[in-house]
Design goal:
By secondary structure, this protein is mainly alpha-helical. It is built from 9 helices and no strands. α8 runs antiparallel to α9.
Length: 272
């Protein structure tokens, strides 16, 4: 969409320059008033051509030919790019809806469970819990503040509090699901979510290659901790962004998401 916007800005700038210069030219050449000259320039560039005002001099006619050659193409460029921009916005909105459907399925199948597992190994989670207890009263400003607070958080992982066998079993069980998500062309439009999938998939591969995760040395645990920390960090940021999207667009899905919030100790799927 950005290339379309840039082209539209260029065509609008050229259109305004041609219109101003054309108006000045007809004021000087044809001795018209500014309003008459501007009117003639616009109807000429727009190919309307009412004929009520027309050049009376040879120089004016030559100037009009130049205006038609440059101005008509510029005007059509403005209209064409503006139409393309509207269509691109509609297509982007449709793509965004499809993309967020995929993101929702990911969190239902994988993301929420992983966040719960990782959060249990995070000793400092209580320092940011308030930024994760999303409620119906949250505004866009509240979401923005929570995002900014999370940027300062370390997302530390205590490996002694993670059952690597349980984690390995879960992510390996979801291998085919993750592969299908990575193959989805829609995700190419969402770099941050693609990065999250790659981070989760990498954790799965690291664990899958180890036959017995119970006996790995401390150095290997530290290596895995970095991979888990990366996935944990991306998970929370993407989840919070998704929660904001649901609150704005799908209140009924947002209500369910609040009742399954892995960071809310009082959350219950049962409506009370």
């Amino acid at each position: 969409m950005q290339p379309i916007i840039r082209r539209l800005k260029i065509f609008v700038a050229v259109f305004l320059v041609v219109m101003i210069l054309g108006t000045i030219g007809f004021v000087i050449i044809e001795k018209k008033t500014v309003v008459e000259a501007a009117y003639f320039v616009i109807v000429t560039m727009a190919t309307v051509g009412y004929g009520d005002i027309h050049p009376a001099t040879q120089t004016g006619r030559l100037f009009t030919i130049l205006l038609i050659v440059i101005g008509v193409g510029t005007f059509l460029g403005v209209i064409g790019n503006f139409t393309e921009l509207i269509l691109a916005k509609r297509e982007l909105e449709s793509l965004k809806k499809k993309l967020n459907m995929v993101i929702g399925v990911f969190f239902s199948e994988v993301g929420l469970h992983l966040m719960a597992l990782f959060a249990r190994s995070d000793r400092e989670i209580d320092t940011i819990r308030s930024d994760l207890l999303v409620s119906a009263s949250w505004t866009d400003e509240k979401f923005k503040k929570a995002m900014n607070d999370l940027k300062k958080y370390d997302f530390s992982i205590e490996m002694d509090f993670i059952d690597l066998e349980v984690l390995k079993g879960f992510v390996c069980e979801k291998r085919d699901f993750l592969v299908r998500l990575l193959e989805n062309p829609i995700l190419l439009e969402h770099q941050s979510f693609t990065d999250l999938l790659r981070a989760v998939f990498h954790c799965m591969e690291e664990l899958a290659y180890r036959e017995d995760v119970k006996t790995i040395p401390e150095s290997d645990k530290n290596h895995l901790a970095n991979d888990i920390k990366r996935a944990y960090h991306l998970l929370i940021h993407e989840w919070l962004d998704y929660m904001q999207y649901l609150k704005t667009n799908y209140p009924f899905l947002f209500h369910l998401a609040m009742r399954t919030n892995p960071f809310d100790r009082t959350a219950s799927i049962v409506v009370k």
